[in-house]
């Protein structure tokens, strides 16, 4: 048995609207890692198929959203780190039980590591581009991206005039034009410049 590695990544640092979302994933040794990649390099169809596979085959997973108003209160970096911390602390097994196993290593995508209450024996690593090189982090990037995209599509049903199903809150030309024309939506990050 290899080390039990938990990968953590987030999606949604750059958007003007909606939450920042983090996922944590522990993969088994026999997971088909060749299927994985950075979520941004996969098609939506492939990400959605992998989301199902990861949740079925993983040892444990979780997804956490930090809403727009908290982002405005504590800033996007702190909100991202909080999402990562909460994702790690809420890991569940595929059948929904709280994960109670041992973790040997935690890898986070990026340069900042969240404050976790973990044993000193656990190796904690922040690694740039881990979402393209570390299988558990790739899996976490897929779960974070698919969960956030689905949530933004739900928001598009509540606020159809903002067309969130098209841009997911990112600062696209369309999104900026809509905001300038009709003003900020109820899920707008007020501290982000349009």
Question: What is the gist of this entry?
Answer:
This protein has 194 residues and is an alpha/beta fold.
CATH architecture: 2-Layer Sandwich
CATH level 4 superfamily: Ribonuclease H-like superfamily/Ribonuclease H
Encode the helix/strand succession as letters: EEHEHHEEHHHH
The separation of the N and C termini measures 49 Å
Shape: globular
Taking pLDDT < 50 over at least 5 consecutive residues as the criterion, the unreliable ranges are none
DSSP summary, beta strand count? 5
* CATH-defined fold name: Nucleotidyltransferase, domain 5
The major sheet is characterized as:
5 strands, mixed
Helix content: 25-40%
Count of discrete structural domains = 1
**Rg from Cα:** 17 Å
Number of helices: 7
Mean pLDDT: 95
Task: Name the assembly state.
Answer: single chain
Topology overview:
Layout: E1 5-11, E2 20-26, H1 44-57, E3 60-66, H2 68-74, H3 76-89, E4 105-109, E5 123-127, H4 130-133, H5 135-158, H6 164-167, H7 173-182
Which tags fit this structure?
194 residues, alpha/beta, Nucleotidyltransferase, domain 5, five-stranded mixed sheet, 7 helices, 5 strands
Task: Explain this structure.
A hairpin with an 8-residue loop joins strand 1 (5-11) and strand 2. This protein has a 5-stranded mixed sheet with strand order 3-2-1-4-5, sandwiched between helices. The protein has 7 helices and 5 strands. Helix 1 packs across helix 5 and helix 2 (68-74) packs across helix 3 (76-89). By secondary structure, the protein is α/β, with parallel strands linked by helices. The protein has a single domain (5-182), classed as Nucleotidyltransferase, domain 5.
């Amino acid at each position: 048995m290899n080390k039990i590695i938990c990968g953590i990544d987030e999606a949604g640092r750059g958007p003007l609207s909606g939450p920042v979302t983090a996922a944590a994933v522990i993969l088994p040794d026999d997971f088909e890692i060749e299927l994985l990649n950075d979520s941004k390099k996969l098609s939506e169809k492939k990400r959605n198929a992998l989301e199902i596979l990861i949740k079925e085959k993983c040892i444990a997973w979780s997804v956490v959203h930090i809403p727009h108003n908290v982002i405005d209160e504590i800033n996007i970096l702190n909100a991202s780190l909080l999402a990562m911390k909460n994702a790690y602390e809420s890991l569940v097994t595929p059948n929904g039980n709280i994960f109670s196993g041992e973790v040997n290593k935690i890898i986070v995508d990026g340069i900042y590591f969240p404050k976790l209450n973990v044993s000193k024996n656990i190796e904690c690593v922040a690694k740039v581009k881990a979402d393209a090189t570390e299988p558990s982090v790739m899996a976490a990037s897929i779960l974070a991206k698919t969960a956030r995209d689905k949530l933004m599509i739900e928001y598009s049903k509540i606020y159809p005039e903002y067309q969130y199903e098209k841009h997911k809150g990112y600062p696209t030309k369309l999104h900026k034009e809509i905001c300038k024309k009709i003003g900020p939506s109820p899920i707008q990050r007020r501290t982000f410049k349009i």
